[in-house]
Amino acid sequence: MKFDLAEYLTVLSPKDRVGIERHLLVKKKGLLNKYNMPGTREAYTLFAGTIVLRDTYKFIKDKIESMLGSVENLTVLDLGIGEGFMWNKILSSLQPSLRKRIGIVGIDFSHIALKHLKKNLSGFSLNGLEIIRADMNELDLVKLNLNPDVVISSLALHHLNMREKVKIINGIKKSFDTKLMLSEVDFNLEAIEDIRLRNYAASLLYRDVFDTIRSIESQKNAELILHNFYYDEFLNILKSDNPSLEERYIPLSEWMNIMRSANIKLTDIRITLTGINNIYRIGIIEGRT
Ligand SMILES: C[S@@+](CC[C@H](N)C(=O)[O-])C[C@H]1O[C@@H](n2cnc3c(N)ncnc32)[C@H](O)[C@@H]1O
Questions:
Q1: What is the reported pTM?
Q2: 242 vs 247: CA distance, rounded Å
Q3: Fewer Cβ within 10 Å of end Cβ, the chain: N or C?
Q4: 110 CB less than 6 Å from ligand 1?
Q5: Each residue of 253-262: pLDDT tens digit?
Q6: 51, 274 contact by CB (below 8 A)
Q7: Which numbered atom of ligand 1 lies nearest the CA of 135?
Q8: What is the DSSP letter of 158?
């Protein structure tokens, strides 16, 4: 069956249908530079405030609190740390005496995100904050010369293609004796296996996201956020029936396979209870290298 984008665009408002077509044209001409665009940052701020992520951050915070029970100081390596939205939420809800025992090494390739990260975490007294601007795909983890207690990556590895995902997970296994906590977008395969239905569900979900952004942001801002971020996310989440190396969003079960193939022992799996339509949600996998 051929993947027909136009079929799913009918679910969206006429404004977004036109917007996505324009977005595809700009993309084809290679004129997008996502991570340095203000829209990307604003879009993620909106998403980070949603209830889906509140559950995710709470889960990771509880894990960190429990790890602090067995070590004096906790060193965390965060791959794709961004502006530190996750850390802001987690650190704000931890006791200052616990925060002081956490050292964070954050890696990201967006220099704008890292600039904001410094500002966002400057109010917390930590055991250390080291920021490394690097592309995960080009990074030799062994050369970092680190001994992290836990490697965390929250909503960042879906930006990598399949080959890169496998490479980074194998790299973590090879480089560190550590816990690994991965939080990623998941979709409910049990609830829905039919690819067309799944795409319709994604389109409905995104119609909701697009409409919400239009209703809470000024028109200019909404256009910026949608064009620089969400249209691309939408196009990436729609799955054709011909999965490719470029595929970004894979279900949690695929992440588990990648981790198992890298000989990482899975120790816990969670799926956030709240999702917009119980088809897309956030999953968290914890493992030990
Ligand atoms: C959606 S944000 C998540 C930020 C953060 N982990 C959180 O939960 O608050 C994804 C981050 O991954 C970073 N990223 C994506 N691909 C990357 C790569 N190849 N190397 C380094 N950073 C990358 C982006 O710059 C962005 O800051």
A1: 0.82
A2: 10
A3: N
A4: yes
A5: 889 999 999 9
A6: yes
A7: 20
A8: G
